[in-house]
Amino acid sequence: MAFEIERRFLVQGEAWRTDVTTTRHLRQGYLAREDGVSVRVRVAGDAARLTIKGPGGLVRREFEYDIPARDAEDMLALLCAGRSLRKTRHEVPLDGLVWEVDVFEGALAGLVVAEVELPAADHPLRVPAWAGREITADPRYANAALASATAPPRG
């Protein structure tokens, strides 16, 4: 059984851009979201994945499966209406970890979120100056919630 151990932060400023090593465009939609469980389909280039995430904040159960890109495109178009988003993901390595900085598009334009996956919940983490307020436990900033939002959360 797989776990995702992840912390998330709102990003301040543009200083993170100087250390970006990889950039990719993501489209994702939510097939289901109930009782803290979400089922997501994501397309990144020619690759597609189906992801099931359990409830939780810092530590959650996560199952991921490669799926045919054509199936993913059909799911996004036919099953995710009103529950999808687009973002550009930038990878920023720091202290042996990879921070993923997501710049959201469309109705969420202006929202920039950084997340970092940790090898353990108690793993020491140096938070860079450009990572502002932590939002790990704020459900308004979960991608599953953002996919249905008409604007970025306030506050």
From TrEMBL:
Domain of life: Bacteria
Domain CYTH as annotated: residue spans: 2-148
PANTHER family according to UniProt: SLR0698 PROTEIN
Signal peptide start and end residues: none
SMART domains assigned to the protein according to its UniProt record, in alphabetical order: CYTH
SUPFAM superfamilies: CYTH-like phosphatases (SSF55154)
Name assigned to this protein: CYTH domain-containing protein
